[in-house]
Amino acid sequence: MEKNNLLDEVEFYAKKTSAYIEVSKNKESVHVRPMKKEDYEQVYDLWLQIQGFGIRTIDDSKEGVYKFLERNPGISTVAVVDNGSQEKIVGAILCGHDGRRGCMYHVCVNKKYRKKGIGKAMTIACMRALQKEKINVVSLIAYKNNEVGNQFWHGENWNERQEMNYYDFILNDENITNFNE
Ligand SMILES: CC(C)(COP(=O)(O)OP(=O)(O)OC[C@H]1O[C@@H](n2cnc3c(N)ncnc32)[C@H](O)[C@@H]1OP(=O)(O)O)[C@@H](O)C(=O)NCCC(=O)NCCS
Predict the structure, then answer these.
(1) Of the candidates 51, 11, 23, 15, the residue with the CA atom closest to the CA atom of residue 119
(2) What pTM did the predictor assign?
């Protein structure tokens, strides 16, 4: 497999039945699996810990995330440490599609667990899920000042599209974004 060809890696892992990766010297293992509604509280707590993240009052509420998961079953992903009695969520990606294009939101890994391949494993899991639904392209927004985030996507060989502008229009003023410090 050619190094850094993410699409090859997606296809490589698609042939495996599960994605388990070792993340620490003490043999703690991290399991990447689809996000469930019951994960919401832990995922939300994780989002609050991520510096610079913008958390939306409606979209990121329990109801908002449940709506997203119902529309996009089995595509969003979490990374969990399982100590036998309980799962601790250390990474998450909200991922879905509109029938044509896939989108990733709130891609994050707990600071203590970064640089161990968890972000990459979750990204691959989401991409596999999108491929299964015959989605041909996936995109995301990274703030220009997010050095770590942009380095991650560059490292994974995603295309930074310089030739286009991103447009949006707010449809509901009550969906307020609060940025983490
Ligand atoms: C971005 C983020 C999800 C990466 O998660 P991670 O588990 O640490 O990433 P991985 O270990 O899978 O890294 C895969 C590759 O990404 C690149 N990368 C990841 N973190 C990097 C960093 N801090 N600096 C430079 N390159 C980095 C490397 O190429 C790395 O490959 P390598 O380990 O072979 O060098 C994590 O840093 C994070 O949660 N950041 C805060 C939230 C954020 O910015 N999210 C992205 C929003 S667009």
Answers:
(1) 23
(2) 0.92
